[in-house]
Amino acid sequence: MKTLKRLINIKCCEEIEEYKKIGITNFLIFIPEFSIAYPTIPIEDAPDEVFVYVNRIMDTNTVTNFKKIIPQLKRFRGIIFEDLGVFHLLKDEKIPLIWAQNHFVTNKESLNYYLESGCLSAIISNELHKEEIKEMFSSSLKPLVFTVFGKNNVMYSRRKLLSNFNEHVGLDEMNDVVLETKRGSFFAHEEENGTLLFAHEYFNYLEFSEEIPDEKVLYYLILNLEFSVQEIGEILDGKEVGNRGFLEKKTVYKMAEYDDKK
Amino acid sequence: MKNIELLAPAGSLEKMKIALLYGADAVYLGGTEFSLRANAKNFSRNEMREAVTYAHEREKKVYVTVNIVFHNEDLVGLEEYLRFLGEIKVDAIIASDLAVMSLINRKKIPLELHISTQASILNEEAALFYKELGATRLVLAREANRDDIKKIKETTGLELECFMHGAMCTSLSGRCVLSNYCTNRDSNRGGCAQICRFEFDYLKDGKKQSEIPFSMTPKDLNMIPFIEEMMKIGVNSFKIEGRMRSIYYVATVILIYRRLIDKILANTLTKEYQEYALNILNRVANRESAPQFFDSLPGKNEQYFLGRQEISNQDFLGLVLDYQEGFAIIEQRNYFKRGDIVQFIGPNLETFDYKVEEIWDECDNKIEKANHAQMIVKLKVNVKLQQFDMMRIKVFDIS
Lengths: 262, 399
Prior knowledge:
The structure holds 2 protein chains of 2 kinds. By secondary structure, chain A is of the alpha/beta class.
């Protein structure tokens, strides 16, 4: 059952048949101009069977362009959205919608608001502790999408942070770098619409996902930045890659709590 | 260009009073619950009640931030808190999470709703979404440019609030969890540890690419060159960042912007005053500021590459406590001595230069210097001063 619910992003259409060979049958694509961070596939090249992940926060000019492609979006299985402008535009279009506002899908009140407002599902945020994740699933009005493997996007800046630094220090154009401090390492990727920072290490919630009732899960999402189909297959078969993210680490709210835990 | 509002941060009751006195039309503040800036002192419920009364007596407004991104455990007590804010008649709350908006609507809690910059509103469709939820004002993303602001105003007709001055996030607001990773503090629940102001090694294929550490710190924002245009395209409220800043910072920044806005509205703003204002603002923050996003995407000149190095500002010399028979009673805030050239600033005062000829202590003994923190001294000043006027080092000629 779980295998049938696996959902993965593809980097090119040819990957679809390869993934089907290892049992993955649900796919999503990122699209040029309206998606960020992941390799994109032009809409016209994509088969009907995929979800489209629109994860850019859009300015007015981009929204104007997005409106033009709405008719082309209707043939897909659904749209996964970050910007609430997309929700406003599509909520009456009879297109299945999945709310994926990064870092905001953290409580049942707002979650169920979107589900009651017509969303098919939501992708819960990755910064939640395992008990919080379980509670989100148990209190949700509809089955949710659970990201079980991926690199967490930890920052999304509109600025060209790498270009600015390269220019400042006189480096040639350089992208996809690692930023390292004693406190952590981050993978940084810049594109026309800004700079994305990811946790350098993948998180792997595959084992933990067994603890979530299957009927509460719409899809088990795998967000792949760099692995081959074969490597993804090995990971799904149990190869140990990645860490347990925030499953055991509850982030603190009040600074007094932080001081107590130091 | 009607209904232009200067909106100030209020990290404490004292700072709120200073901000309103120095010319703010409204303040925003956080309670001890549900507000970002968990390190700020924030307001108890009694203080909030007092703040609203104080402001309303002066026909000013108070907005309360309820702008964390909630986890389930944080929802406990939220409804009761929102009802309390309604009861004390705050002028609006500032929220980013649908949980708050949904609760207000479902429970019919009488609160006006402003959408926080944490919601990163950059387009008219997102703006319409919030309008349909009942929002009366949008605090636009700091990344909004001229076209975005115009289009959102034209489409929604809502009040628009824009940041005009102060520290900038490197990230789109709300879209950063660096602190969660590096310190386990939740940046969307008030725990931002400003990791984006750290220095990083810059690696490619495992090799360090630069001996100069990577930095992504933006300069502070100031929108001085564009305020008038922003007014014309429909921005109603001009917001100053900084609930954790000092009273001197609040007073200085608010006073400068009060005068800038008034001069714009009176059509008397000069280039000289703009330059003077910029010098004062850069000085008080100890770091440079620049317009960002409105006109163009910030480049390397709008970033710092100096990590966290900032020089402490000791310009604030004293707070006027009283003025009696030609003498100013002053609480010392930084060292000064006889012979120093200083300036007095105040909400009802034309800023003026002053030479410290003589200093008296509390027992009327003449002294050479004021060198103890918060010591009370007297200065003979011919211009009538008022409580909360301030004395600072003279750095720039008055414009």
